[in-house]
Amino acid sequence: MDTEITVIEARDLIRSKKTLQLIDLRSPVEYNRGSIQGFINIPLSELSLKIPQLEGRKHTLLLCQDGTQSHQGLLLLEATGFNVQVVRGGLRDWARVIDPTLPV
């Protein structure tokens, strides 16, 4: 499986109602300014501490502002056996392509 997924592919996957784990790695301030429905906020700095609370068998999508933090999160979760992909371009691409009402 590719480690990245486009925002359109992510949107379609979310709409398919497949069992997914959606994680937004931005800071709480950024997350509260605007987020995508269904994504839970776990800042990258807290991700390693939260791994025991996550479901490693679920397909996991990671999102951040532009994709940079998501790639760091990907390495961490892949090392612990997660089935994980990064939403390429992060919230910036999501706002540009799917929902221009999101503040970025």
Walk me through the structure.
- The chain is an alpha/beta fold.
- It has a single domain, classed as Rhodanese-like domain (Oxidized Rhodanese, domain 1), CATH 3.40.250.
- The protein has helices spanning about 5-15, 30-35, 45-50, 70-80, 90-95; strands spanning about 5, 20-25, 40, 60-65, 85.
- It is globular, with a radius of gyration of 12 Å.
State the helix count.
Answer: 5
CATH topology: Oxidized Rhodanese, domain 1
Identify the CATH class. Alpha Beta
CATH arch. level architecture: 3-Layer(aba) Sandwich
Alpha-beta classification:
alpha/beta
Say how many strands there are.
Answer: 5
Radius of gyration: 12 Å
Element-by-element helix/strand order: EHEHEHEHEH
Shape estimate: globular
What's the mean pLDDT score?
A: 94
Largest sheet, spatial ordering of strands: 1-5-4-2-3
Percent range of helical residues = 40-55%
